[in-house]
Design a protein that fits this description.
19 helices, Beta-Lactamase, five-stranded antiparallel β-sheet, Hypothetical protein af1432, alpha+beta
């Protein structure tokens, strides 16, 4: 009836438990040298009946109580318990034997036990809640640590959207919201930031994205601070107070840096917990967006804003470099209007070939810029040689051949352009080593230069020159194929033909753009740098360098 005490209980705990259960004193006894002595009073000796009961209890399994009835009114109750030192102690005492008293004690114990079980259950739920909160805090710290690691991903080659895509899914799970979205911004003529598009979404929006455009602008109209809104239930709120019909809660963090708004991170509807029990830990606000979610979202928005500002600065710097390059190219093309557009076309062709070969976006862009600058060294070639309508002498041709080295000397002082020097310096090298200026062969020629060599040769062969017309595309294609692996890099030539249709489209678009630019009458003296014959836009677009004279090994 009494059951078993857990073997991990101490003699003191068993003694207190039995005393409390039966409302009578219990004592601890230990047998030394065949004699029982009371640990509470060493001088106390047990009566014969108690001694026999202690001997009996000592022979029982530790933790299992024994009961001896002294008379009609009294019971002896004892239990053997192992103490911390490994010795055995018997806890024993008297208890009433009448049923009514025992029932009262047992009822009290039952009530006390149930109260204790209920309290333990509450404590267990509370502990689980604290454990969940601790786990959430750990997840938050882990996300913030991962967020700091995203800084490595925040280089200028990755856009704001690409960086956001890498962090939003895990952030949404951590915030436990139904949807987390990135909306990008543009400024209107009045200088106000406007929502332009839904750039990325993890989860769901609940309402149409067009409705969100107005809602974001409405909720953030007061400034650039983070906004948290937890709306009343649908049944009691007024539609006029809520811009979106099916939104219970929303948090909006502007992506802003130095008063420039790049976009907004928007979290929608806090998800309900799997067990929607109303515990002390989650009974208030468990389905609302609060400070934790707002802080996490704001941390992500700050990092994205910093990245967006850096990308903007990089793009401005890059645009300055591109504008500088176009200015430098214009210096060359101003000397010879017949080759106007050659550098643009070589740059476009080189980029298409590089993309077909699977090069990175940054590498393709560098090849494009190097294509624009590949003939910059011709600024050092005299007009008499550069504009000569007939064949060049050996001395004149030697002057032309120096333009790659002149180009390198011009550009090496410009740090942002140094990465383009391999294409400028070596675009006239040949795979068999017969090119110039250094006679490099095979893979000793930089890949950038090998790609530009194919683009340069194609445009030179198919463009009109003062001393000849451009050759038909079929003949130029045959020459490229026959020189593949000997004069030109075989992979670059193969990529050129693989992208042939795209290249035709790119060149057609380029000619259309040029035709639009030249639609109005223009002064040849201003554009061509001297008295040049007036030409139709198509002729100006197809002009190019005399590749056949510059490449003696080239059959063209």
């Amino acid at each position: 009836m009494i059951g078993e005490f857990p073997q991990t209980a101490t003699p003191d705990e068993v003694c207190d438990g039995l005393s409390s259960m039966f409302g009578a004193p219990f004592h601890r006894w230990r047998k030394r040298n065949g004699t029982w002595s009371c640990l509470e009073d060493s001088a106390c000796r047990p009566a014969d009946a108690l001694q026999r009961h202690l001997d009996r209890a000592a022979t029982c399994e530790p933790g299992r109580p024994t009961i001896t009835q002294l008379d009609a009114a009294k019971l002896l109750i004892g239990a053997c318990v192992v103490d911390e030192g490994g010795g055995e102690v018997v806890v024993a005492g008297e208890a009433p034997a009448d049923a009514t008293t025992l029932a009262m004690h047992l009822a009290q114990v039952a009530v006390s036990t149930q109260n204790s079980i209920h309290e333990q259950a509450e404590q267990r739920v509370l502990l689980e809640s604290y454990a969940n909160k601790l786990a959430d805090s750990y997840e938050e710290l882990s996300f913030l640590r991962r967020l700091s690691q995203h800084v490595e991903y925040c280089d200028a080659s990755n856009s704001l959207v690409e960086v956001a895509e890498a962090m939003i899914p895990s952030l949404r799970e951590l915030m436990a919201v139904e949807g987390l979205a990135l909306f990008t911004a543009e400024y209107d003529v009045a200088g106000r930031p406007r929502v332009t598009e839904l750039a990325y979404l993890s989860g769901k929006l609940c309402d149409a994205q067009e409705e969100w455009f107005h809602a974001i602008e409405s909720l953030t109209a007061a400034g650039t601070r983070i906004v948290v809104k937890n709306f009343p239930p649908l049944a009691v709120r007024h539609a006029s107070n809520v811009p979106l019909a099916r939104v219970r809660s929303v948090v909006i963090a502007p992506i802003v840096k130095e008063k420039t708004v790049f976009g907004w991170l928007v979290g929608i509807n806090k998800r309900h917990a799997d067990d929607e029990s109303q515990t002390p830990a989650n009974s208030l606000g468990f389905d609302e967006i609060g400070t934790i979610e707002a802080t996490l979202l704001q941390s992500a928005a700050v990092m994205l804003a910093t990245h967006a500002a850096n990308v903007q600065l990089f793009q401005e710097k890059e645009q300055l470099v591109v504008d500088t390059i176009h200015t430098l190219v214009g210096v060359i093309e101003a000397k010879d209007s017949y080759t106007s557009g050659h550098s643009d076309r070589v740059a476009l062709l080189g980029r298409e070939i590089a993309e077909q070969m699977g090069l990175s976006v940054a590498e393709c862009h560098d090849i494009y810029l190097a294509g624009l600058l590949h003939d910059i060294g011709k600024v050092g070639v005299s007009d008499d040689v550069l504009l000569k309508p007939g064949r060049l002498t050996e001395q004149e041709f030697a002057e032309i051949r120096r333009h790659p080295e002149v180009g390198q000397r011009l550009l090496q002082r410009l740090k942002p352009l140094r990465r383009l020097l391999p294409g400028v310096m070596h675009h006239h090298e040949s795979m068999d080593g017969s090119g110039y200026p250094h006679g490099l062969a095979g893979e000793d020629i930089p890949q950038m230069a090998r790609i530009l060599a194919v683009a340069d040769a194609w445009d030179a062969m198919t463009s009109d020159r003062p001393y000849r017309n451009g050759m038909p595309e079929e003949k130029a294609e045959a020459i490229l194929r026959s020189g593949s692996g000997q004069q030109w890099d075989a992979d670059a030539v193969a990529a050129f033909f693989a992208a042939r249709e795209t290249i035709r489209e790119v060149l057609a678009q380029w000619r259309d753009d040029l035709r639009n630019i030249l639609a109005a009458p223009w002064d040849a003296d201003t554009i061509g740098g001297g008295a040049q014959p007036r030409r139709e836009p198509e002729a100006a677009a197809e002009a190019a360098q005399p590749a056949a004279l510059e490449l003696p090994a080239n059959p063209v």
